[in-house]
Design goal:
single chain, 326 residues, alpha/beta, D-Maltodextrin-Binding Protein, domain 2, 10 strands, globular, Bug_dom1, ABC transporter substrate-binding protein, signal, BUG
């Protein structure tokens, strides 16, 4: 290699590096899209739109939300995993996408760790164990005793949103902690589940706090315990499972923001800083809390650690309970 050629190559490399750094420094210079793999109107959509507004204000560029539901979030997640890794296509989804499906589904078109750059977990979503008013149980321990009594008769029936859903996994955690056999009964959503509880079709149910708190306060169903590390403001008199002596009942959903794998580090860093600052804002935190969620910020490596931990946990639960998703 001649000295002249080496000099030219060095100059070209330096110019390319400077250009790339300038491009990243200018991020974003166009609209950003946040894909939500659910239909509009739910908690995931609400959190995504809150982030979109705040990111738009911070970056001075439009940030739009695109709903791409289907196949239990796989359609949206796969689209983002395959998107151009430039920071202009992101995804805000719940833990179902990142940990439940990878733990229960034999093969997925994406990998929750390798297919994405992890920007941050922004909210936690505890769930609540509910009981019909006719059940002679006012605590999780009493419900566990009732479940054990019914084990020989096929098991106490509890409501879920279908195989592999948060209520299903939480119910199996509860059954295993109780040492009891229980029978999951699938419903299409919170409204049907609550109606079944009120009507006495099922003894127990697991639901989100936001969907069930009003019915609990109205005395139509009874709340026995919530998952998570702290009591929920919407149900301040309801203990956590840990307080009730059942710490292994620990399913807590969450919402995380990611970009496609290979998104440049400076772009990921810019998004990480922006979201961290957004989640420290008191009004943002209040808005998230008003959704019956717990505002947090858990950046890249803790985000990945959470995925690894939960995939292991849910795989074990699924194996013991015989839960599989085709």
């Amino acid at each position: 290699m001649t000295a002249r050629f080496r000099t030219a190559l060095l100059a070209f490399t330096l110019a390319a590096t400077v250009h790339a750094g300038a491009a990243h420094a200018a991020y974003p210079d166009q609209a950003i899209k946040i894909v939500v793999p659910f239909t509009p109107g739910g908690a995931t959509d609400a959190v995504a739109r809150l982030l979109a507004t705040q990111l738009s204000n911070k970056f001075g560029q439009p940030v739009i939300v695109e709903n791409r539901p289907g196949a239990s979030t796989v359609i949206g997640a796969d689209a983002v995993a395959r998107a151009k890794p430039d920071g202009y296509t992101l995804m805000l989804s719940g833990s179902t996408t990142y940990t439940v499906l990878p733990a229960l589904k034999p093969s997925l078109s994406y990998d929750p760790t390798r297919s994405f750059e992890h920007i941050g977990i922004v909210a936690m979503a505890p769930v609540v164990l509910l009981a019909q008013n006719g059940l002679a149980a006012t605590t999780p321990q009493e419900a566990a005793a009732a479940a054990r009594q019914q084990s020989a008769k096929g098991g106490l029936m509890y409501g879920t949103f279908g195989p592999g859903s948060a209520p299903h996994l939480t119910g199996e955690m509860f059954a295993q902690a109780a040492g009891a056999k229980m029978m999951p009964v699938p419903y299409k959503g919170s409204a049907q589940l609550i109606t079944a509880l009120i009507g006495g079709e099922i003894a127990l149910g697991v639901d989100t706090v936001s969907a069930s708190a009003a019915q609990v306060r109205a005395g139509k169903v009874r709340a026995l315990a919530v998952t998570g590390e702290q009591r929920m403001p919407q149900l301040p008199d309801v203990p956590t499972f840990a307080e009730a002596g059942m710490p292994d009942v620990s399913f807590v959903g969450w919402y995380g923001l990611v970009a496609p794998a290979q998104t440049p580090g400076p772009v990921v860093d810019a998004l990480n800083r922006a979201v961290s600052e957004i989640m420290q804002d008191e009004q943002v935190r209040k808005t998230v809390s008003d959704l019956s969620l717990v505002p947090v910020f858990m950046p890249g490596q803790p985000f990945r650690d959470q995925i690894a931990k939960e995939v292991t946990t849910f795989s074990g639960i699924a194996t013991r309970a015989g839960i599989t998703l085709d």
